Amino acid sequence: MTDPGWIDLALTSARPQAMGALLRYFRDLDLAQEAFQEACLRALKTWPEKGPPRDPAAWLIFVGRNSGIDQVRKRAKTQPLPPEEVLSDLEDREADMADRLDGAHYRDDILRLLFVCCHPELPATQQIALALRIVSGLSVRQIARAFLVSEAAMEQRITRAKARIGAAGVAFETPDAVARAERLGRVAAMIYLVFNEGYSAGEPEKLDTPFCAEAIRLARLLLMLFPAEPEIMGLTALLLLQHARRKARFDGDGQIVLLEDQDRSLWDRGMIDEALVLIDKALRHRAPGPFQIQAAIAALHARAPTAAQTDWLEIDLLYQTLERLQPSPVVTLNRAVAVSKRAGPEAALALVEPLADVLSGYFYFHGLRGGLLKQLGRYAEARDAFGKAIALATSTAEAAHIRQHLDSLQREMAAGRAPSAAP
Amino acid sequence: MLYAVLCYDSESEVCAWSKEQDDKVMADLGAVNQRYAEAGKLGPVARLMPTTAAVTVRKGATDAIVMDGPFAETKEQFLGFFVVQAETLEEAITFARELSAANPAHGTYEIRPLQYFMPGVPIA
């Protein structure tokens, strides 16, 4: 009961709600953070003796608010008075305390806390760092290590991001339905960024970073707050399905293992099952969105007992729907993979070639194009494409993967084998 | 008599467990289960997925209405259950105490004597 590890866990899980409420009181990220920190210190002192409170978040909000008010008063003696609305907000504390602690605001509090992290002026890496710091409560050191930068550099990055948010101002009034939907969409996109930072780097070491697990936790949190939002179900399902494959994505030497070659017994069935239920739930709403469709595509892979039994036709159709909803050359590129499985490399190449202008700087474009050309026996062009891919690889694992293609290409050319799939 | 021991806890806290923490809790609870199973006293045991994966079917004016999740904004959620055979209430409480000791979270175990029990068939 008094194991500090479990107190940490209680503090972590209460954090979004408590930080969200403190941000609403103080309207200042730093002050809210200091107040929360102070409340946590007191919790570490008193909880082991008295046992945890019934409602840890309410306890932290109450204690944090009082300590924050003290802080504001102390500053007021040495500094000019804070703006009137902050002061007046502090005056009525007894009167509306009960109202403020009843949790009625907690949904918008947490959404706001997430929303300040995804300010459009902030670059993706700053959004991610801020969310991990402010909402998840990771230490600057943990975040710095995950991003492979120094602690000082990360501290600076976070400070700069906070200054930018402060300058931009955040809407503290309770959002209406339209504003809430917009916030939800932006927050969902930010959570996906956090996940991708851990997932798409193509390095096995990244699997141990907190990005993916934290993103899933944030997605679940958002879904608990908005249990009837099909796109949030889709987002959560998509993250679970991708994360379910983590143990199968790299071999013992850190080499990338493609989906079709992965050992499916290594996939996390618990995560897959939860995701499949979420997709079923989302589909009942008949309001398809990009996250739901991507999740449905990932689900078709998860449901296939072997790679050969993948329903490529259905995947192709889902990508076509995604192209209509959210046209993007990358989506078309992904569809080309399904087309190559279902209709052969020539049909896929016809889809890929027109993307050359927009995707010429994209690793996967050249990798896929090279693979298709190789299947068609157009070896010289394939070698050329693989060469471009290697130059654009962002990790050693990616480069090594393409080099394997080049080696097998070299062998086939040396053997003078007749091109197998040429028309 | 048969008792259902129902586990309630904060889902957000349980979902924050790392894989290692979760595995340890399951192993520790499993050890308690093992002893009761070997004594022939333990029936079905289940852990539920998060409430975010749930729907609720409620009687409507004409048709039943299906809603997402249990909407109740409670601090603790129903997370799982055990069916145990106990001679006395005291014995059922002992079982729940052992589960509580094995579980580092601060949730509660509610003990409900069963009025009707159908063990069902082994599910394929």
UniProtKB/TrEMBL annotation, chain B:
Similarity-based family: Belongs to the YciI family.
Pfam families named among the record's database cross-references: YCII
Coiled-coil stretches noted in the UniProt entry, renumbered to this chain: none
SUPFAM superfamilies: Dimeric alpha+beta barrel (SSF54909)
InterPro entries on file: Dimeric_a/b-barrel, YCII
Domain annotation YCII-related: ranges: 1-114
Protein name: YciI family protein
